[in-house]
Amino acid sequence: MPIWLEKSYPILLLLVAVAIVVSRLPKVDLGHDARFKRRRKLNWIVLGLTYSILYFGRYNLSAIAGELDRSGVLSRRDFNEIDGVGLAVYGIAFLLNGPLADRWGGRTTILLAAGGSAVMNAGMAFAMAHHARTASDGGSDEMLKPALMWLNAANMYFQSFGAVSIVKVNAAWFHVRERGVLGGLFGILISLGLYFSYDWSLQLFRSFGFVAPMWVPAVVLGAMFVASFLVVRDSPSKAGLVDFDTGDATSGQLHADPLKVVVRKLLSQRVIWILVAIEFCSGFLRQAAMKQFRPYAVALDQSQSFVYENWGMLLCVAGILGGVFAGTISDHVFGSRRGPVASILYAGLLAGSIGCWLLLGDPSVGWSIVFMSLCVIGVHGMLSGTATADFGGSKNAGVVTGLIDGFVYLGGATQAAVFALSLPEGPAAKDSANWIAWPVWMMAVALIGLIFCTRVWNARPKAGGGH
Q1: Model confidence over 294-309: pLDDT tens digits?
Q2: Which residues neighbour 138 within 8 Å (Cβ) at sequence distance 6 or greater?
Q3: What distance in Å separates the CA atoms of residue 195 and residue 94, rounded to the nearest whole number?
Q4: Mean pLDDT of 344-361
Q5: Secondary structure of the chain in the HEC alphabet?
């Protein structure tokens, strides 16, 4: 049996179980007819799969970072520098791409995301191939790091269209009372993308070398570009159906506000500032857990552990559970409030980071990181995937998602810079005591994020018009 199929079994079984549980939940009946539901599902599936595959082309380099370091191709510090620049570009690009999504529509921007990322991944594959040819001829390739720096930065620019696109499109297709479970599904998409990236990229590297983890995502993203072009539509009316009142912050508005009006509204809302702070912390913790674990395991000779070998699968399972848990209790326990869910998950992040500190050096530390991933993917789906549409409204979802998700990746860039300076290199990395900065930073950031989460416990969007 192919190894990828063997590792897919737990995910497939879990998705079946999730589908059964979600189907048994009380329905939020808003009067949508069967034709509308079928077309919305098709729109959502293709858009969602495109978003998942974007992750395949985003985390593929980090998935093999430990192997690149071990092979002497790219040091861990070089990777953190490349990654930090890419994450900073991603975060800053949101400030431009959010308004573009509101102006051009999510369909156009998801096509830019898939097409642009496909081209940049192909470029990274060429850079890797050139390095391999140079090394085989006994030469030294000084261009690999700068080539990856520029190509990865450009890739992250195009990738930043992904989240704003999916939120922008779905804001027009889902009522605010339907978006909690939608946020859980957003978490599932993230989780599947991480599985593709971390496990498939590692297997591609082991089977075909450094070039394949870049080429395969490029080809698959090209296929999703075509599928999105044929299927995805920005709103029900663009698909030949009737638009409806989504009940969010721009309910009753016919058009998006001018950018300066949106920004003024956002900056005047205390809840938006708190969401920005929470998601900055989420970005730091998300990348600290996902991107530092495998290099840590390689450095401490724990790369044969179950968690290391099945990292993508475990992240996927954890993310699915976190996303479904978050979305379900948001809509069915807390009345579509997002703050209580984020608080519970941040308490889990704090507990997980404490566990990482206590277990540092032991192979079981990986399980603490898996648990943290469950919590942080749940938070990210709930806030970036749902609260942004709630508080920005369907007309301004791109700008709000751009602002909040931009800070997610600025948080990620901050952790890359912090750990590039504070984590050990060379022989010192083999002593777990020298990795203490990793859990200490995560504990501090998780505590700060938890405090902010409690400040939006009762926050709800205010509709701009009648329901």
Answers
A1: 889 988 988 888 888 8
A2: none
A3: 25
A4: 94
A5: CCHHHHHHHHHHHHHHHHHHHHHHCCCCCCCCCHHHHHHHHHHHHHHHHHHHHHHHCCCHHHHCHHHHHHCCCCCHHHHHHHHHHHHHHHHHHHHHHHHHHHHHCHHHHHHHHHHHHHHHHHHHHHHHHHHHHHHHCCCCCCCHHHHHHHHHHHHHHHHCHHHHHHHHHHHHHCCHHHHHHHHHHHHHHHHHHHHHHHHHHHHHHHHHCCCHHHHHHHHHHHHHHHHHHHHCCCCHHHHCCCCCCCCCCCCCCCCCCCHHHHHHHHHCCHHHHHHHHHHHHHHHHHHHHHHHHHHHHHHCCCCCCHHHHCHHHHHHHHHHHHHHHHHHHHHHCCCCCCHHHHHHHHHHHHHHHHHHHHHCCCCCHHHHHHHHHHHHHHHHHHHHHHHHHHHHHHHHHHHHHHHHHHHHHHHHHHHHHHHHHHCCCHHHHHCHHHHCHHHHHHHHHHHHHHHHHHCCCCCCCCCCCCC
Q: Which two tokens stand for residue 406?
A: 């931009």
Q: Which phi and psi angles does 55 have, rounded to 5°?
A: -65, -35
Q: Name all domains of the chain by residue range, CATH numbers in brackets.
A: 37-238+248-454 (1.20.1250.20)
**CB count in 10 Å sphere of residue 138:** 6
Biggest CA–CA distance in the chain, Å, is: 71
Given a cut of 60, is residue 349 above it in pLDDT? Answer: yes
Q: Average pLDDT of the chain?
A: 81
Whose tokens are 């500032």? That residue is: 273
Q: Which two tokens stand for residue 414?
A: 């901050």
Minimal CA–CA distance to 319: which of 383, 381, 368?
381
Asked whether the predicted pLDDT for residue 466 surpasses 50, the reply is no
Rounded CA separation 219/205 (Å): 16
pTM for this prediction? 0.73
* Per-residue pLDDT reduced to its tens digit, 227-254: 999 999 998 999 988 887 766 555 555 4
The tens digit of pLDDT for each residue in 43-78 reads 988 998 899 899 999 989 988 988 888 888 888 889
Tell me the residue type at 450.
L
CA angle, 378 then 250 then 449, to 5° = 30
The residues near 386 (Cβ < 8 Å, ≥ 6 apart) are 179, 180, 182, 183, 186, 327, 330, 338
Contact predicate 196/271, CB 8 Å: no
Of 366, 235, 383, which is closest to residue 290 (Cα–Cα)?
366
